[in-house]
């Protein structure tokens, strides 16, 4: 990696660029190639997941307040938030976006968007690993928090 590439991605900008592209694909693909006849049950379940994911994402962002950043690098003067949705999972914004993207794919009955949602899960897992290394360096209390709270799914993962 060259020094300019390293500087460009020093705070995790590459993850953010990738997630924007994947999220855009998930959103746009069903609109460009709509699928007719999606079963009502899938549309209802998908809509419920979109609402749940949007609510979790919004609640998590509000709870972070000035600590919110799309980058895996924490704010220099930030604080570790361990309340609200952060008592359930360490990365609730990622969990919410995954729920919403899965819901969008299901509501539209679109396999391509469903596949991209799987790719987004993989990307968020990589980004979360990098973010957790950075949080451990920045916050001495992070390892204890990490032991208590799961990454994306309460009690599971």
TrEMBL record:
Protein name stated in the entry: Isoprenylcysteine carboxylmethyltransferase family protein
Organism taxonomic ancestry: Bacteria, Thermotogati, Deinococcota, Deinococci, Deinococcales
Molecular function GO labels: methyltransferase activity
Keywords: Membrane, Methyltransferase, Transferase, Transmembrane, Transmembrane helix
Pfam families named among the record's database cross-references: PEMT (PF04191)
Membrane topology: Multi-pass membrane protein
Listed GO CC annotations: endomembrane system
Broad class of the protein's primary localization: membrane
Keyword Transmembrane helix included in the entry's annotation: yes
Cleaved signal peptide residues: none
Segments passing through the bilayer: 14-32, 44-62
Subcellular location: Endomembrane system
UniProt key word Transmembrane: yes
GO BP of this protein: methylation
């Amino acid at each position: 990696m060259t020094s300019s590439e390293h500087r460009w991605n020093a705070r995790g900008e590459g993850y953010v660029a990738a997630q924007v592209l994947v999220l855009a694909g998930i959103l746009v693909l069903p609109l460009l190639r709509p699928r007719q006849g999606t079963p009502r049950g899938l549309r209802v379940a998908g809509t419920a997941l979109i609402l749940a994911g949007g609510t979790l994402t919004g609640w998590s962002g509000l709870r972070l307040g000035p600590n919110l950043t799309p980058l895996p690098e924490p704010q220099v003067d930030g604080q570790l938030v361990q309340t609200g949705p952060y008592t359930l999972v360490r990365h609730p914004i990622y969990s919410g976006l995954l729920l919403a993207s899965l819901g969008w794919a299901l509501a539209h009955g679109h396999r391509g968007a469903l596949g991209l949602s799987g790719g987004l899960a993989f990307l968020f897992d990589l980004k979360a690993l990098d973010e957790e290394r950075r949080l451990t360096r920045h916050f001495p209390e992070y390892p204890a928090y990490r032991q208590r709270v799961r990454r994306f799914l309460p009690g599971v993962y």
